[in-house]
Hints:
Two copies of one chain form a homodimer. By secondary structure, chain A is of the alpha/beta class. The first copy, chain A, has 14 helices and 14 strands. The first copy, chain A, has two domains: 5-11 and 259-377, Alpha-Beta Complex (Aspartate Aminotransferase, domain 1); 16-257, 3-Layer(aba) Sandwich (Aspartate Aminotransferase, domain 2). Chain A has a seven-stranded mixed β-sheet, sandwiched between helices. Chain A has a three-stranded antiparallel β-sheet with strand order 11-14-13, covered by helices on one side. A two-stranded parallel sheet of chain A has the order 1-12. Chain A is globular and about 60 Å long.
Amino acid sequence: MLKKQLFSPGPTPVPERVLLAMAGPVIHHRDPAYEELFEEVREGLKYVFQTKNEVLLFASSGTGAMEGAVCNTLSLGDEALVVRGGKFGERWGEICEVYGVDFTAIDVPWGEAVDPVLIERALDANPSIRAVFVQAIETSTGVMHPIKEIADIVNGRDDTILVVDAISALGVSDLPMDKWGLDVVVSGSQKAFMLPPGLSFVALSDKAWDFAERSTLPKYYFNFKKELASAQKNQSQFTPAISLVVGLHESLKMLKEEGLENVFKRHQKLALATREAVKALGLELLAQNAPSNALTAIKVPAGIDGKKLKSDFEERFGLIVAGGQSQLKGKIIRIAHLGYFQQMDIIQAVSSLELLLRDMGYPVELGRGIRAAEEVLGSA
Amino acid sequence: MLKKQLFSPGPTPVPERVLLAMAGPVIHHRDPAYEELFEEVREGLKYVFQTKNEVLLFASSGTGAMEGAVCNTLSLGDEALVVRGGKFGERWGEICEVYGVDFTAIDVPWGEAVDPVLIERALDANPSIRAVFVQAIETSTGVMHPIKEIADIVNGRDDTILVVDAISALGVSDLPMDKWGLDVVVSGSQKAFMLPPGLSFVALSDKAWDFAERSTLPKYYFNFKKELASAQKNQSQFTPAISLVVGLHESLKMLKEEGLENVFKRHQKLALATREAVKALGLELLAQNAPSNALTAIKVPAGIDGKKLKSDFEERFGLIVAGGQSQLKGKIIRIAHLGYFQQMDIIQAVSSLELLLRDMGYPVELGRGIRAAEEVLGSA
Lengths: 380, 380
């Protein structure tokens, strides 16, 4: 018997009450019952995005809204700056390329955060750059980029917007869109929103909406201006993913009940406990200087088979963790503490790690990681 | 007490066993359990599409796959022919416009099917037309267009493909993709696939894949070639809408258990019973010459308030039917018999119609429509 549990940074576990809400008969998206629910969903999304502006919903994975963020704000031949410090940073570049947006890349070693000074220099060197694309949390490495500092740099420039992929960051760490002046914030359902994948979200600042007015790249399904007009009538441009929106209504209620600040604190504590446990076991974090609170990426020690370590997590203990992607394949293990996670989930992950590593021949003093985790969890 | 029941042509009712399948814990899309399920889903989709080629899945509404059908097969300045006989025909034109595809429209009065001769003439007159866009069933009017006849015309031309929006048609009427030589077939989850909205499907003929090789329009999320490469590895390019795919696995099982031929016969019988009942009540069908088996559009009789008729269906009997869209607003009532529908569902709809019309002052002999429906339902 194995209770399979998601410890992957997307999909993440979906609370039972959300699953049950989605299991009800499908309602019609023009029905008053749905319209009332959708109004509350729109308000709830503004709460999580910390914005007064409308948050748009699409039936798509987060990548759809990332594509929309490019083709709704820019035009052919526009210049952009892309921070590439992992698989998702590369995705911004790929999307720009498809749309004929000329981009300069700041290539950051995978596992490190971007130095904001590099962004400032790049913008100073080329004032034609219209948009800076970055991840808040780069899910492939577990790094948190310094979004506040980057926003402070971009905000001084009238002709440049900051576009943030916050798919793994929203609802994890404080990322107040309006207060910090983030221009485009993208997110997705299968992370801290505690839903199955299939919904993406995006909000634009007034400055970004001005960009949208002038953008000439083609778009239809992900047309932000038209979707905004529909949202302002409390509708969707196309048939929405009704059951997921019903689930979102429930998970937003949970986030409100807990309160955003407590949600952030919970993630911080779980992440810190995980990191301290990992270090106590003599393991190395991939994201040494800027680890995110969404997931912890651990370097697989020399002599240990990373692929086997990942699959043993599942086969022996039912824990579905993630391995590395692209250049990090086999080299890291990623343990998520993102969304529907609580203290004893971390204990499960750390204990599994201790037992698995010991049995693979890595020197482990059993309980040492757990003790470090408990010290964090037990603190005020 | 009201048992709310969907009689709308999307969303349609979702079977309890599908709802329950989707209510289980979310599984990871790289997990062997998901991979096994996804392999069966891919096979099941080929069965319903009646094609040997791969059927691609996207997390999006059907419109997303329609957009993909344009931007994956054509290039800037290409010419196209669009059949516009309703709201969804117009959508093909809108998408072409966004992408700079020059299109000629064949405007068909809403409620009528296109005459294939008009398509033949248009293609003869302009051999540069690269693609013909049409609906199999135009959901806004309930009309079924003559797809087989149109395919016979397009198939003779090497430089032209036929692109069929079969969102409301697949799993309703026989539409054998390979046998008829349809080049692109698009569908969606919330119709005969008996799922909530949020998934779109598309399959391409070998000829259409050749077009995809040459297409230069920008695409990223809906990139068919890249999605095909992923599907051939039994994966998805981006995080799939896992819970909906799990539901699809269950609903495809149901379609297989019943057998496609029986599914078509069931829809035909239910549709015929509805139409005969409507006529027996002295009402007029909107789609007089080419009514589809997915839904029946009924003209609201003079002197009757169409909006009130629609809402009374729901408020008095719990039946959620659809009204008219755009130019047909208030003028028609659309009753679906599409997907998870059986004989007594039709009896409910017809009986509600009789009672509502009588109470609104339309002369009705109670039971007359029901008798006509029963005669169809009771026949072999």
